[in-house]
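Holo prediction — S-adenosylmethionine.
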Amino acid sequence: MTGVARQPGAGPLPAAERSRRIAEVFDEVAECYDNVGVAWFTPIARELVARLAPEAGERALDLGCGRGAATFALADAVGPAGRVTAVDLSRRMVAATTADAAAQGRPQVEVLLMDAGTPSLPPASYDLAVASFVLFFLPAPVAALRAWRRLLVPGGRVGVSTFTRTRGGLLDDLFLPYLPEPAFGGGAGFGSDDVARMVTAAGFGQVRSEHADIEVRFGSVDQWYAWSRSHGQRAIWQLLSEPDRRRVRAEAASWLAGHRHRDGTTRVTERIRFTIGIVPP
Ligand SMILES: C[S@@+](CC[C@H](N)C(=O)[O-])C[C@H]1O[C@@H](n2cnc3c(N)ncnc32)[C@H](O)[C@@H]1O
């Protein structure tokens, strides 16, 4: 459930309105995002970064940085001699991640308020670029990838992570009976090989998609609920009436209890796609 929530009967949102709503949702969750005791965005972003093998001194770009799940992995890898430019559409994400970078003493990180779809950064000035769970938010993903290619040097690497399912993962099925079909916008075009096709269409070479099964653990329904409301899925909760919210929560409680391990946690595994491309020489 990766898209921007829409009201029933509404057509596709104009790009500017879509961006405004995305920024609004991520502004709302910026404080709790990736911060409710559930390891999810950070391990995935770290895995994405590792697949691009950043080296000390390199210049890296993190598009749609959120709270820096990939930014700080990149900063670790490129070290003090390198540079990480992180951009996001959400003012509060940018403010919080800027504060985190300062608190962690990472002068090589700069965080900018910017639309990743139309970045205004100097061309051919980065060695690698990542976008973890961002591409499906962009109204024109191939155009964005093309813009990112222009920011990279020849031989530069791009890496994007995406869900392999456009719906139904991570308990998303529980929402389905309560939502209109159009609420699931944004997933279209992110099926099996579509992401590799997009990266190729943007002019990258040696494009490949790799997969990893990432496990997420929930200690209780309260933790799942807090987690579910701490990222883009918050937009889906906002479409539900209060009684329907209670129903989804109760169904989640029963599902989590029915799948609980002996250690008291419930584990859900999602297959994540990592798509990598190289700027031709
Ligand atoms: C699911 S979060 C991923 C954040 C981070 N990459 C991570 O892995 O935790 C998506 C992020 O992309 C940002 N975003 C969405 N559309 C964007 C755009 N057009 N330009 C820049 N950032 C965008 C959101 O504000 C949000 O912070």
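READOUT: Confidence is low (pLDDT under 50) at residues 1-9, 183-188.
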